[in-house]
Amino acid sequence: MLKKKDPIYGFVTRDYWCDIGDLQAYLQAHYDIFQGKINLLNDYTEIKKGIWVGSGTLIEPNALISGPCIIGNNCRISTSTVIEDMCVIGDNNVIEGETSIKRSIIWDNNYIEYGSQIRGAIICNKVNFKHYVSIFENAVIGDKCIVNERAIIKPGIKIWPQKTIDPLAIVDRNIVWGSKHNKTIFGENGLSGIINVDISPEFAARLGAAYGSIFKKGSKVVVSSTTSNSARMFKHAFASGILSVGVEVFNLSSLLTPISRHAINFLSVEGGIHVKLSNDNPNKLRVDFMDSKGASISRVTERKIENAFFREDFRRCSGEEISRLNNITDFKNYYVRSILNDVNIDAIRTFPQKICIISPSDFVISLVVPMLQDIGCKVASFSSAFNAHDKIVEEIEKNNADFAAFIDSNGETLSLIDKSGNIINDDLFLSLTSLIMFKNIANSKVVVPITAPSVIESLAKKYNGNVLRTKTSPHAVMEQMLNHNLLKNKENAYQFSLNFDALAGLVKIIEYLCKNKTPLTEIMEEIPAFYVSKKKIFCPWELKGKVMRTLITEKSDEKVELLDGVKFIMENGWVLVLPDADMPLCRVYSEGDTPQIAESISEKYLTKIRTIINTR
User: Which of 90, 208, 75 is nearest to 143 (CA)?
Assistant: First the structure.
């Protein structure tokens, strides 16, 4: 400009001016707002000294906010969140509980899950932090990034837009090029995501079309959900996608997953879905996909759906080819009747049980209590979470009950509590159902995952039964249980109900106790004591293969099984090392003759895995 002799002008002003050339200047400009150097807060309400909030923002009780601080329009700040001074939070942000934010700038439309820590950082637009993420001073996260569970972003790190950070990752260098574009929809336990963040109506409709496209035109499927409005929203959007590809839909209204599984068999359809809220987060949905037998779909079927979804090559039918939506409102009555038709009610009435029913779901209680009363049981019930153990024991004593039954909110998981307060769940419950199978059906075959305790083989030997071990996924277990038609093979149906249908399983356990006039405490004494250990260890994705290969090729006198992961069998126990499908983890399961042996076996292999990971 000087060479060209272009004119250069200056302007003298008393107004605020800041040349934002780096991050420190950008942060300082925000701090200057708090110091009153520039007035930009006319559209905000000062709810407390130094705390300005926009319209439509909800701050829940017990959220702790220290001024000076600005929170934009239409935000939700959940309970137990801590926002300290010098924070600027834009519009349409959701910040879940137990989150802590200090001296940070957060732009618009972000979703920060519970337990995250943000310290002196800048978060741009449409960023999704999963739970327990930590990000430190002078770090910057670009638009539309996804930072997965328990990731740590170290000070000064810059992450360019549309990047995905792995769970448990420690990011200590800038991420500029490349991105981890997520080509999977399903995790180890099906499909799940935050409502209107990971899972929107548009996503549901597109996924429904992809799902429907794996079937022939004119096929029939079932859709159902819990009573949650968000679950219903997903269900209806998903159903519209299915209808658009020429597949007929049966809408079962508000039900439980086991009822949907039963309906698939009863209606002879090709498959179905059930939508429910996550047990650990009311803002997260889980979607169960089921095959024509009512079992969880296989990984092969999941890939077909994912391929159709990402390629968007699903067919579209003409308007006249669109199938109808069939609403069925009373299927739960058929379900209850089918359970009762399959047990000896007279035997139950001759030795009636006193039972406490506990569930966090009023809908579950409304189904199971009258059903048990119809067959002669005396029932007390209350709504509670499973962790209220003392209250459950108190209710057993107060009602002189034989035992208590806890049923989860979706009617799938059953746990029992006996008169002494002993909890029967997980491996112990699986051992109980296996024992009932062996004693109730001669020469019966029990299907259990490879992680199940060896005591089940001991019970099989005692009662001339057989044990078939499978991979750990729900589909693998269900597939083996249902390798024949569910409605025609009573043995398969019996074990499936005991393990995947809490209502039917409870009635069958009651029937067994009544037919044999045996209290629950007495049958539990038949199960030998066993000692298991379950641990996990961080393992980077790229080293999982190395860990497994090294463990397999090490010289050892132990017997090796490779059904799922790698299992080593010893004289005094066994250990299974299993890479996690969704997280950078290896899971280590072990069993020993004593608790100390089980723990020592686990520690031995945890040490081996650490050594392999650290040997580069």
Answer: 90
- The DSSP symbol for 482 reads T
Pairing relation of β-strands 69-71 and 51-53? parallel
Residues 6+ apart with CB under 8 A from 616: none
> What is the number of other CB atoms lying within 10 angstroms of the CB of residue 56?
12
Secondary structure of 91-113 in HEC code, one letter for each residue = CCCEECCCCEEECCEECCCCEEC
| pLDDT tens per residue across span 116-142 | 999 999 999 999 999 999 999 999 999
Q: What CATH fold (topology level) applies to the domain 23-171?
A: UDP N-Acetylglucosamine Acyltransferase; domain 1 (2.160.10)
Q: Which two tokens stand for residue 394?
A: 């108190």
Dist. CA 577–CA 117, nearest whole Å: 32
Structure tokens at 601: 């076996």
pLDDT for res 616:
65
Distance CA 520, CA 419 (A): 9
Same fold, 347-524 and 531-614: no
| 191-329 classified as CATH 2.40.70.10 | no
Closest CA to 121 of 194, 33, 30, 18: 30
- CATH of span 347-524: 3.40.120.10
